[in-house]
Each structure stands twice: as structure tokens, then as C-alpha cells.
Design goal:
The chain is mostly helical. It has helices at residues 22-48, 53-65, 73-80, 84-96, 118-138, 144-182; strands at residues 71-72, 100-104, 112-116. α1 (22-48) packs across α2 (53-65).
Amino acid sequence: MPRFHPPLTTSREEFLKDGTDQLFREAIYALALSVEKLLSCRSVFARILHLTPSQFAVLMGVASQQGGRGVTIKDLAAHLAMAPTHVTTEIGRLETKGLLSKRSNEADRRSILVTLTSKGEKEVERISPVVRDVNDILFQNIGVKSLINAHVVANKIVRNSADARSHARKAAANMARKAAQKKPKRQTGGSPG
């Protein structure tokens, strides 16, 4: 029986080795698995603080971005690569928990500044040793050059993802339309014979 060879999943010649895309496939699987593992760790950190993973990301994002004056929702959303409306919702929930506070932005009255409360600072201080230990384990045997390369690649994938998702949606719609056209039409009414 002949062996099945799946079609290539990339046409980029530089990603093909010996005429196959096996290296590319393995890299994609490893990237997806690594993101899954990172998100799994984030979920554990969030549970320790009785937060959702999104709330944890927002809390830590504010901690790292607030500086001496606070961070705007727009800047925080850009930093976290989250929709501003989602960030606004999570900020409201964290404010209700007493972890964040909002105040008017004196430099731009149209926006607000978000900062950690003293309770928020204590929670960030409480979780930071766990985050640090886990990160040290996750990134052992990874040098700074590899980290920088991974950061560059990840950012490029994020930037390319909007166009890729748009293309995938159009392809899915076209395939669904073609499948619907191939279905035989059912006869209605009347009895056979």
C-alpha cells in the first residue's frame, strides 16, 4: 500500500527540508505547546490570588506599567495585546476586589489612569516569588539571545495574525459555500409514484 504524504502546510522554501515541511510542523507544534504551558502556569498564578487568568494578566500588567503616575487603559491594552473593552471590564472587576484604583488623567481628561492599591501591591508581592521561581524553571538553559529571538518571532506572529485570521475566515466561508452547493436538494411535497 502506498504511503500517504500530506500536502505541504507552507510554501516557504526556506522552511522546507528535503522537500518536506516536517521541521516547520514540529516548530509550530512546539510553539503552540509552549504557549499552552505558559498559559497553564498563568492560570495557576491566578488561582493562587483567586483571580481569572485575564485578571491576573491585567493586575501584573498594571504593576509593570504604572510607573509613578499610573497607566492608561489604551497603553495597558496595547502592552497586554488585549482589546481595550476587555481590559476595561477586568479593571472594573479588580477595582471591585480592591486591587486597582482609577483616577482622571490630568494630562488628558479623556482618559483615566490605573494604579495598584496597597492591597494590589501586597498581592503582587505575594505572588512574585512563585512567578519568579516558575520562570526560572521554565527558562532554564535558555540564553538571552534565544529569549530575544523568541520575543521577535512571537511579536511577528502576533502582527501577522490579523491577516492570517482574515484569510482563514474567507477560506472557511468559501469551503462552506462550495459544500452547500454540492449537497443534493431534497424533494418536497407529493408522494412517490
